[in-house]
Amino acid sequence: MKADRFTRLPLVAIDPARDDVTVDLTYATAENVTGKPIYRRPVCCLRREAHDALMRAVALARPLGYRIVVFDAFRPQKAQEVLWAFNPDPAQVADPAVGSNHTRGVAVDLTLADAATGRHLDMGTGFDAFCLESYHASTAVPVAAQANRFLLLGLMAASGWRHIDSEWWHYQLPGGDWPLLTDDSAPEPMM
User: Fold this and answer.
1) Given 31, 49, 133, 167, which residue is catalytic?
2) Which long-range contacts (CB under 8 A, 24 or more apart) does 137-146 make?
3) How many CB atoms lie within 10 A of CB 149?
4) Could you tell me if 180 and 4 are in contact, meaning their C-beta atoms sit under 8 angstroms apart?
5) The pTM is what?
6) Inter-CA distances, 175 with 10, 31, 95, 138, Å
7) What's the pLDDT tens digit per position in 31-71?
8) 3-state secondary structure of 188
């Protein structure tokens, strides 16, 4: 990969207190599909346009009694390479040679939680479950999980996001001309 394909662009950190979201940055822990942390720095951030769209979804979810839980946002290139090595299936993981919308800072992986209890809504599978049941419109999951997926879809679509068929948790901004970002585009982790 040529270094000139990448842009260094400051990203906006997702701040749980300021942004009224829960951040559960799964790839910063061993509790992910690879079984090991794949992030060098545990920071959750997005491009400004994606952050603004996420805040629109938060504002729509809040009066309904839901809170957004973010599993992943901007993903450094090295982490994308680790995921691709673990599961080189383009229906589930973008080839790092092409780049992911996560490595462009315009994709977010998330779910909904009950705002009062913090309990995640049942979506039928876990985050990053690489299986047919994870497809957004799968009817192989309970009806309640299907309804929860469509609730999430409605909130995100109304906020300017698009989904992909194979992952109920993944949303990205429309358009394909977002440049790839360098791994050092992210701000330092908040302490």
Assistant:
1) 167
2) 137/165, 138/168
3) 26
4) no
5) 0.90
6) 20, 31, 18, 26
7) 999 999 998 888 899 999 999 999 999 999 999 999 999 99
8) coil
Cα-Cα-Cα-Cα dihedral sign, residues 76, 82, 85, 87: negative
Give the bridge partners for 164, in sequence order.
167
Q: Sorting pLDDT into bands at 50, 70 and 90, what band is 8? A: low
Total Cβ atoms within 10 A of residue 182: 16
83 vs 60: CA distance, rounded Å:
32
Q: Which domains does the chain have, with CATH numbers?
A: 3-185 (3.30.1380.10)
Q: Distance (Å, rounded) from C-alpha 139 to C-alpha 154?
A: 18
Please indicate whether residue 31 is annotated as part of the active site.
no
119-to-21, 92, 104, 146 alpha-carbon distances in Å: 13, 26, 30, 17
* Residue found by looking up tokens 């901007």 in the block: 74
Half-sphere exposure of residue 4: CA atoms within 13 angstroms, side-chain side = 0
Q: Is 148 helix (H, G, I), strand (E, B) or coil?
A: helix
Q: What is the DSSP letter of 37?
A: -
Token duo for residue 112: 């909904």
